[in-house]
């Protein structure tokens, strides 16, 4: 950290770009190679396949689901799993399989939105803090530390109390919780890349900060961030379920896995399937994101294995 | 830190006095309560009053129940402490043996099973596991009560029975996280040069393991256990709700719902302080375990 040279004042990009073009480019992200390696890891490959299926299911939910999510049928109340209703029906006679399918959309949408927010804000903070160092680093990271000191669930609850419940606010609340995690991971990764020869070489021929950051630092600092994204998706889905379970997230009658669990809890003695199947759905989704994260880590970033195991929980 | 706690809580919309009074009240009572609670003062003034008192341990009075926040927190503290310590115990009982065995026989059947189990433990939603366990052990088998809390001194058997399920739920989750750390840190310690030297000297396996491997593997274990303990102490809200466990998480959730600023501020401040204290203790433990850091 000490003695980190401040980058020279940013020159205008137009003046420098021409000069840099002739120098060597940062290696392209080898995503094809990564996918190939990932496919050789059976667990990660299966997890990825299940997740693709889940996303497809969420996109085409209306077509896939046997019944509407809120189709009430009083005659079919609390039916045990059968051929007509593989997951049974709830206290209003709604088909649980259909609600689990439609709940996938809600859970995944909130998860993706939350992680996208945390990724963009957190990576930006970490990038600036790691690249510029000194007071920028101090100010930004101290603020992240404060945010990090709050218990995750309570911070999310507080955000929801400010903004009111609902899917969008849940995504925002979970996103805010994970901003410091992304900031830390990005900063650590940028610190490792910042002083690499190719960065210094590029700087010495007058590349602007913007060009250095986007062309050299970010692509090379990306692997741990990608791994963190997959793991965070797991926890975001889990957090959405927890918040909805507490009645602060997705609101009825929308089907959300956490909410269905909360509703099913009251019937646990007489109809176990109400709470069981949504719980299974949460569990499988989270498991797949975690397994994919592990697989990605093995392929992209073997050194980080110890550092980030189980990160965030 | 205290400014952030205060600002965050003030952002919660809703009029706490209106909520405390219910639907029927007259303007006079309202004004009197407003003046008593100090909510008619400017925000900066409110913050300074609050922070000044907080330093001396006075966290104010709950809008809802009229009790002091300190006594409300003190009331909930034993339940939270009990659950957190029991959970960490369960977690370590799972993680240390499982992680060590996996590391000693990497890629063996035991290792693979342990990896899968810890992966499952990390991914399972706590509240779902809680519901399933209640269904099995309280419902079907009828061995354990489904929730609640009694003091240790009042009814030791009842205390243990009620503690078991929530401690297992949170312990399994924390234990799964810790297992992965134990495995990787033992693996790393096993590969270190000084371990090879010790083996080359012909030291007995057991001695190499306890003195050269385990001691080095202890450092990351202390860190991750500290993080998990901080997380458990801040009240595992959802598990507390499912088991009707009267802990701090439940208190904080109720405070959010009732817009009870003083209680919420007090609870969050306590969590933040707990987090800092645990980090400090972890750092101190580090120097105790690893003489290299003392310099």
UniProtKB/TrEMBL annotation, chain A:
Keywords per UniProt: Cell membrane, Membrane, Transmembrane, Transmembrane helix, Transport
Residue segments, region Disordered: 1-27
InterPro entries listed in its UniProt record: BP-dependent_transpt_permease, MetI-like, MetI-like_sf, OppC_N
Pro residues bias: start-end ranges: 1-10
Pfam families according to UniProt: BPD_transp_1, OppC_N
Main location: membrane
CDD domains: TM_PBP2
GO biological process: transmembrane transport
Domain ABC transmembrane type-1: 104-293
Transmembrane parts of this sequence: 37-60, 110-131, 143-161, 167-185, 225-250, 270-293
Compartments (UniProt record): Cell membrane
Similarity comment: Belongs to the binding-protein-dependent transport system permease family.
The protein's name in its UniProt record: Peptide/nickel transport system permease protein
Automatic annotation (TrEMBL), chain B:
Membrane-traversing stretches: 81-104, 116-143, 163-182, 217-243, 263-286
Keyword Ribonucleoprotein among UniProt keywords: no
Biological process (GO), any one: transmembrane transport
Domain ABC transmembrane type-1: 77-286
Keyword Membrane annotated: yes
CC terms in the record's Gene Ontology section: plasma membrane
Family matches, as Gene3D superfamilies: MetI-like
Predominant subcellular localization, coarse grouping: membrane
Membrane topology: Multi-pass membrane protein
Keyword annotations of the record: Cell membrane, Membrane, Transmembrane, Transmembrane helix, Transport
UniProt-listed InterPro entries: BPD_transp_1_N, MetI-like, MetI-like_sf
Domain of life of the native organism: Bacteria
Cellular localisation: Cell membrane
Family: Belongs to the binding-protein-dependent transport system permease family.
Protein name: Peptide/nickel transport system permease protein
Organism: Geodermatophilus nigrescens
């Amino acid at each position: 950290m000490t003695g980190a040279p401040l980058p020279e004042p940013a020159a205008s990009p137009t003046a420098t770009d021409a000069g840099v073009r002739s120098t060597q480019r940062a290696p392209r992200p080898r995503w094809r190679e990564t996918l190939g390696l990932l496919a050789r890891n059976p667990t990660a490959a299966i997890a990825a396949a299940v997740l693709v299926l889940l996303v497809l299911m969420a996109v085409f939910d209306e077509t896939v689901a046997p019944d509407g999510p809120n189709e009430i049928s009083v005659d079919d109340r609390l039916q045990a799993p059968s051929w007509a209703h593989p997951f049974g029906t709830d206290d209003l006679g709604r088909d649980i399989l259909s609600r689990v399918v439609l709940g996938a959309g809600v859970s995944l949408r909130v998860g993706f939105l939350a992680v996208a927010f945390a990724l963009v804000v957190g990576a930006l903070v970490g990038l600036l803090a790691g690249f510029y160092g000194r007071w920028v680093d101090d100010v930004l990271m101290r603020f992240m530390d404060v945010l990090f000191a709050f218990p995750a669930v309570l911070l999310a609850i507080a955000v929801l109390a400010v903004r009111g419940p609902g899917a969008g606010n849940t995504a925002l609340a979970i996103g805010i919780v994970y901003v410091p995690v992304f900031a830390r991971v990005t900063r650590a990764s940028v610190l490792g890349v910042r002083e690499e020869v190719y960065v210094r070489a590029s700087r010495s021929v007058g590349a602007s900060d913007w060009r250095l950051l986007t062309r050299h630092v970010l692509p090379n600092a990306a692997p741990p961030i990608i791994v963190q994204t997959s793991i965070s998706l797991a926890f975001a889905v889990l957090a959405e379920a927890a918040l909805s379970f507490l009645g602060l997230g997705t609101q009825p009658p929308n089907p959300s896995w956490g909410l269905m669990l909360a509703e099913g809890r009251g019937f646990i003695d007489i109809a176990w399937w109400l709470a069981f199947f949504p719980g299974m759905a949460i569990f499988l989704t989270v498991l797949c994101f975690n397994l994919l994260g592990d697989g990605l880590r093995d392929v992209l970033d073997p050194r980080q294995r110890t550092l980030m195991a189980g990160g965030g929980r | 830190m205290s400014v952030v706690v205060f600002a965050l809580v003030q952002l919660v919309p809703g009029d706490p006095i209106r909520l405390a009074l219910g639907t029927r009240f007259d303007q006079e009572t309202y004004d009197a309560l407003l003046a008593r609670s100090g909510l008619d003062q400017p925000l900066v003034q409110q913050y300074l009053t609050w922070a000044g008192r907080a330093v001396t341990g006075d966290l104010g009075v709950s809008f809802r129940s009229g009790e002091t926040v300190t006594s409300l927190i003190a009331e909930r503290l034993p339940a939270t402490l009990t659950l957190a310590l029991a959970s960490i115990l369960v977690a370590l009982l799972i993680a240390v043996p499982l992680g060590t065995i996996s590391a000693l026989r990497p890629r063996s059947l035991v290792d693979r099973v342990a990896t899968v189990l810890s992966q499952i433990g990390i991914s399972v939603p706590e509240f779902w596991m809680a519901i399933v366990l209640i269904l099995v052990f309280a419902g079907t088998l009828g061995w354990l009560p489904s929730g609640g809390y009694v003091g240790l001194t009042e009814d030791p058997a009842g205390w243990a029975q009620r503690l078991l399920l929530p401690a297992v739920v949170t312990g399994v989750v924390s234990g799964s996280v810790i297992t992965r750390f134990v495995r990787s840190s033992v693996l790393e310690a096993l590969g270190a040069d000084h371990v090879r030297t010790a083996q080359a000297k012909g030291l007995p396996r057991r001695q190499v393991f306890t003195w050269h491997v385990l001691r080095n593997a202890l450092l990351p274990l202390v860190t991750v256990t500290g993080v998990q303990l901080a997380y458990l102490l801040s009240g595992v809200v959802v598990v507390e709700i499912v088991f009707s466990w009267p802990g701090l998480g439940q208190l904080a959730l109720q405070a959010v719902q009732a817009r009870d600023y003083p209680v919420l501020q007090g609870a969050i401040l306590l969590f933040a302080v707990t987090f800092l204290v645990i980090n400090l203790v972890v750092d101190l433990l580090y120097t105790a375990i690893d003489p290299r850091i003392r310099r």
